[in-house]
Queue: 4 jobs
Job 1
Amino acid sequence: MKIGLVTPYIYPLPGGVNQHVRYLYENLRLRGHDVRIISSSHGLQRASEGDVIRIGRGFSMPANGSVGTITVSPRFLSQVRDVLEREQFDVLHFHEPFVPFLSLVVLGLSNSVNVATFHAFGGFSPAYQLGSRLMRPSIGRIHGRIAVSAVARHFIDRYFPGDYKVIPNGVDVGRFERAVPIAKWQDGTKNILFVGRFEPRKGLLDLLKAYRILRKTGCNCRLLVVGGGPQAKEARRYLATRKLGGVEFLGRVSDDERDALFKTADVYCSPATGRESFGIVLLEAMAAGTAIVASDIHGYKGVVRRGREGLLVPPGKPKELAGALATLLSNDELRESMGRSGLERADEYSWERVTAKVEAYYGFVIRRLAAQGRLPSGFHADIPPSPRAAHQELVETVA
């Protein structure tokens, strides 16, 4: 099939949704599909780069306690019409379809089978409450709905009730199998790793407070911090005023270096305060065989099983965070056991398996539309057989 993956965030800038789109793109191609990524431009990117199609210009703005993107263009309608006419997509797969305005314009002009994945989770959202009224025509154009977790499904179903298929995020297991620990940090001192944006909801300051407690109680450990963001100065000031050593700010690193850091860490810590729908970074830690200490929040509990892959603590509680870190750092057997459990669980979330589930859902939606006589005029591919029919055909072929 010809598939278009629509991301409202500026591809390939770092972020959970863009990472999801990247691996889905790669694995759908491996499964024989012709795939494009539709995104916006930011800075000096060209309008078209191989299979990446850019429409409009993206601007960053605060959203859901983090940073989101809004895409605008004076020629939105004509640009989108030209792209859709040229590409002739069978399926358009929208990721966060209601982030303004790229996805909404593409969805409004689409004559393909439209599937949407909802990634976000939060509490009450005035924007979604208002949008639930304004977006009714748009939600009606979506033929299939996916949520990345049960909590993401619960969140979006509050505003747009309907049937949602839960298909989780994935992880590139092989990438972490190939990673090698960094010798510089293999000096006998235990390593705690944090990877994330320096913003309140990621909980970095809580981790620094917990780390201070660990050091004051005599724990020989080091904190490796990857990322950047608006709280960078505040974090450095906290360390300087308390003369707290052993913290290494590594900034933004390459994918290969980040993979190596996961393999280097003795414990990965994610002290997020909430509004996390899944926690891809937890999967990455598990794929590296690294034990986890994370906040006991809805989006994380579906990934890390308490006491098996890691320890879960109440968010915003540095003392409890320090206690859990101390437990793992001092217990080699427990830490190694959690690492092994994480490796087994990460394999369940391999991108090969996740992509197979997405592909199967495309087929389900297409067959349902065909049975109802509602298959859009833009769908030109063969209708995928049902799993039962495909299995029967295989049996007959072998016989």
Note: Residues 394-399 have pLDDT under 50 and may be disordered.
Job 2
Amino acid sequence: MATQVTNYQCPNCGGPLRFSSEKQVLVCDYCGSEFTPKQVEDFYAEKDAAASQALNELEQQLDTNPEEIKTEWEYSGSEWSENMRVYSCPSCGAQIMCDENTAATSCPYCGNPSIVAGNFSGGFKPDYCIPFKLDKDAAVRALKDYYKGKIFLPRAFTDENHIEEIKGVYVPFWLYDGDVDADVSYYATRSRSWMEGDYRVTRTDHYKLIRNGSVSFVRIPVDGSSKMPDDHMDAIEPFDYSELKPFSTAYMPGYLADKYDVDSKQSLPRATGRAQRSSLSAMTATTGGYDGVSVASSRFRLSNGRVRYAFLPVWVLSTKWKDQNYLFTMNGQTGKLIGNLPVSAGKFIGTFLGIAAAIFAVGYAVLTFM
């Protein structure tokens, strides 16, 4: 059975609304009207209340005047995938098929953005979101800038590499808070040398260092989507959390969104690991003044842990060159972009040989002079 979805339509002309990353409001491309997320929420809250009242009245009429309900034929062919869902587009009535984790999408027939409201209910509703600040054109420009200065990039790549798909996605993230108490011991050495006659004497002193302290962490991000590469999501950090907004589906139109499929407990080891590494780095920063320092033992204790659920903006760009796909992701708030690039074997070998020749020439000149 198809589940009803919502798409935000202009209260003035009925055209589809989309969220403008530039203006930070919902805009109608048909009549040019603009609405704040709060205005749209209030408008649709009134519509939902009126629709609920009308539905209740209809159900009361059906209870008093029951009619025969015809049974529809059911298809008994191949089994339906448990991971797929079908939704009805409110604008054109078409059936939209998408993944069970999809929370915001667009109709492939009329193009109107749609919100799968059920996927934002209960434990799947985020606490916060950061609205997109950069649009699709900014993502394309960032990709072209990313090519610059890459000396091993094949020359034809920038000309022949075509963008297959570009989409703005609200990626589910877990944001962890907590305090870490750290106890770390180090082995350290300090050496000094001097001349005694014809001999150089070196003295090395050995030390054991003890460091302990507490480090507080706020909003350690871990993405909750198995579809997104973890290394990409880590690389496009940081996000500016001062721009976190209480979650509203009014920020979703025009973008895709997925609910999490990796829960907070499954994501906890990544957050804990990041907190421990940062705590260790903070302790190690206090061990200056020695020639060598190595960790002997460490112990970390986490307390006051808390987790929040948020949607963070990411542009995903898929490109293709020589039948191979390349994925790039960009922070939709700051513009930081990361991705994998091909390496020109000819350029790499040429550069290596050039460096080797230069070293050989310098060495030959020194030997000849000597």
Note: The CA atoms of residues 107 and 113 lie 6 Å apart.
Job 3
Amino acid sequence: MIGKSVRAGLVAAAVLGGAVAAKAEVVGKVGVDWIGNDIIVEAVADPKVKGITCHVTYFDRSVIDRLKNGKWFEDPSNNSIACRQTGPVEVGDIDLSKDGEEVFREGMSLIWKKLVVNRIYDKANDTLIYLVHTRELTDGSAKMAISTVPLYGQQVNWTKGKP
């Protein structure tokens, strides 16, 4: 009984919170020092643009580093992104506004910090722009990276017609 209620609550929260459909798959993990800190590489397929995959990297702090330096519940805001065409491109119903839309979100702390990937369509240059940044509840971070996927000259299927 409690399990069903918890699951129902999580589903409701995901629907109300606008859950992001993209899921990340860890494809690499590189140790950077003797105390166990790692750089994680994840592959994120754009859920609304088939044939585009982004590789996102971030720093994963070890327990020893957390004990030594504090900030027990969060990782640094250093991220990198590279997005490429990895198959035939099919663009679904994407947000075409200048704000774009969130493609992926993952926690970088217990509750306050999220790693976010946004997609923006640059119509004038027929290019998809992917921006990785960290969203924080209290202090925003100026650390970010972008990657672009030009669609010009590519065979692209727009399911709702090209804008």
Note: The beta strands are 24-31, 38-45, 49-60, 79-91, 101-107, 113-122, 127-136, 144-150, 156-158.
Job 4
Amino acid sequence: MSKTAYQIPVDGKVMACLDASAYTDSVVDYAAWASKRLEADLICLHVLHREVSRTATADYSGNIGIDTREQLLDELAELDAQRARIGMRRGRELLKAARARAAAAGAGNPDGLQRHGSLVETLTELEEDVRLFVIGKRGESADFNKGHLGANLERAVRAVHRPLLVTSRKFRPVRRFAIAFDGSATARKCVEMVCMSPLLKGLGCYLVVAGDESEKLRESLSWARKQLEAAGFQPETVVEPGNAEQVITEQAGRLDIDLLVMGAYGHSRIRHLIVGSTTTAVLRSCTIPVLLLR
């Protein structure tokens, strides 16, 4: 599949992206849930980041003798090697625990994969065999920095061409979901993907719109309801004037929504830098998992 020609995925694996953050258990639990719903294999992925050796951070050759310098470089190289070995062992233990947790949750034959390099590059390399990525909202270094998303999350969302489920801190059963709908091509694609996939079949369904009603919006909502009804859903519609981030977040709480479905970054990177992004804002403020579709 071409990286630029996006297609609705109908097969492939569920991939849980893991680190040692407080979101790890939640990522495994939601990945196991998705694996069962999709009847798809589950892969637990851990990426070891390559770090620049500390031996390259400074040159003190003018301050120490040649023999001493070579000894220090050897010791630093060994220290780097020890860190790498510890990281690999830590990753293997993380994957072992994740596989056991996923199996206990009912996922079929969960497997583990450990890679070296960048998370984003790894995901783009593997995505053709993936149906759904599952990742935590914040990574290992950002658990308590609640004003910011994980360092890799936005880059991953922009880079991959598969659906991505961004998990909340703790798992809760998914009984009802909402689609953030605005009538755009991206929102319509979200509706089509929900209709095609078994992931959300049989669950309570809402269409949440931030804005004022218009003839164009009513036509778009009528189309969305017909698509969802034909797929077996019984959608309810909520139209609320106001800022998209605020409306979506408030309605998710009021309706007791367990999962939000929305488009991922519908505007260019340049526009995002100038006026911000609803996707990022909702991810920051929403306390439930968000399924991002392209």
Note: Residues 1-6, 52-58, 142-148, 267-276 have pLDDT under 50 and may be disordered.
